[in-house]
UniProtKB/TrEMBL annotation:
Stored InterPro entries: Pilus_assmbl_Flp-typ_CpaB (IPR017592), RcpC_dom (IPR031571)
Domain Flp pilus assembly protein RcpC/CpaB positions: 126-234
Domain of life of the source: Bacteria
Pfam entry (one): RcpC
CDD domains: SAF_CpaB_FlgA_like
Protein name: Flp pilus assembly protein RcpC/CpaB domain-containing protein
Source organism of this protein record: Blastopirellula retiformator
Length: 308
């Protein structure tokens, strides 16, 4: 057996070392772990506060709807810069349907003390001026401007008294009051939402209207009640007063027809008494217009005859 030379032995050692190195590199590449994916952490959410505010200038007595409320969202920095009132209302559900006790400016924050208790509203007493009285009249719905005489509007009150046949007084319409404020209007559901039924005769519906009047006007309305019918005329909000002076009050005045001159005559024939009415004709002469027998006079004559 020949002996290995030193050069051959060195070459073998180098070859073994390269083999081991190559095996290490292969093993390292095969066992190399993939780097973990980089996950971006989102910033923490910004805390906001819900703040309902008035969408416009709102009048006292208004019952609020969705259109009256605007929802804002404030950050903590905004709240610190514009402090909110203590106990402010945080949702529209707390506000819608409630009635304001006071006027509110645009973008005002709502608080519970601004509203009447839930389910209530202002009383009519708060709408009376010093010295005024509240008086309620019953008006046919058609005569109440078809229901447009709502609270806050002003109306003229007309009164039509029925004809008095016994005293020969014609049907007359007068203006009782002018520019009185309507405090409340209450109509029956059938009046507000009429359902036409051709099989049923239409019935006239009535409404009750409460007015703000002076004490002497209360007496006028009380005297007129049950002696005729009231009607309302809606007044323009411009405040220009008008006068009804000179307006016709009866049909004869409206048609410019004067009552004819009449002459009455009673004819007694025994127990019979006849009443004759003469009117002036086109020629200016008296002409018999009507003849009737007065039953009251006949009865009176009979009583006199029996007594005698």
């Amino acid at each position: 057996m020949s002996r290995l030379s030193p050069g051959t032995l060195l070459l073998g050692v180098v070859a073994v070392m390269f083999g081991l190195l190559a095996a290490y590199v292969v093993r390292k590449n095969m066992t190399r772990e993939e780097p973990a994916p980089v996950v971006e952490t989102p910033p923490p959410p910004v805390e906001t506060y819900v703040v309902p505010k008035a969408a416009a200038n709102l009048m006292a007595g208004r019952t609020l709807t969705m259109g009256d409320v605007v929802i804002y969202r404030y950050t903590q920095e905004q709240v610190d810069a514009q402090p909110l009132p203590s106990g402010y209302m945080v949702s529209a559900e707390q506000i819608i349907g409630r009635t304001l006790k006071q006027e509110l400016a645009d973008k005002s924050v709502f608080t519970p003390d601004m509203f009447y208790p839930e389910g209530t509203g202002p009383g009519i007493v708060q709408d009376l001026e010093p010295g005024q009285r509240a008086f309620t009249v019953r008006v046919e719905y058609d005569e109440a401007v078809e229901g447009f005489a709502r609270p806050g509007t002003k109306v003229d009150v007309l009164f039509r008294v029925d004809a008095d046949v016994e005293n020969e007084l014609p049907q007359t319409t007068v203006t009782l009051l002018q520019e009185v404020k309507v405090l409340s209007f209450d109509a029956s559901p059938l009046s507000v939402n009429p359902i036409a039924d051709p099989r049923v005769a239409r019935r006239r519906q009535t409404a009750t209207v409460t007015l703000a009047v002076q004490p002497q006007d209360v007496i006028k309305l009380q005297v007129a009640e049950n002696h005729g019918t009231f009607a309302l005329a809606l007044v323009s909000p411009d405040g220009n007063a008008v006068s009804y002076d000179g307006a016709p009050r009866t049909l004869s005045e409206l048609m410019d027809r004067r009552p004819p001159l009449r002459t009455m005559m009673r004819v007694y024939r025994g127990a019979s008494i006849s009443e004759l009415e003469f009117r002036e004709n086109a020629d200016g002469r008296d002409q018999l217009f009507r003849a009737s027998q007065s039953q009251d006079a006949v009865d009176a004559a009979a009583d006199v005859a029996v007594a005698s």
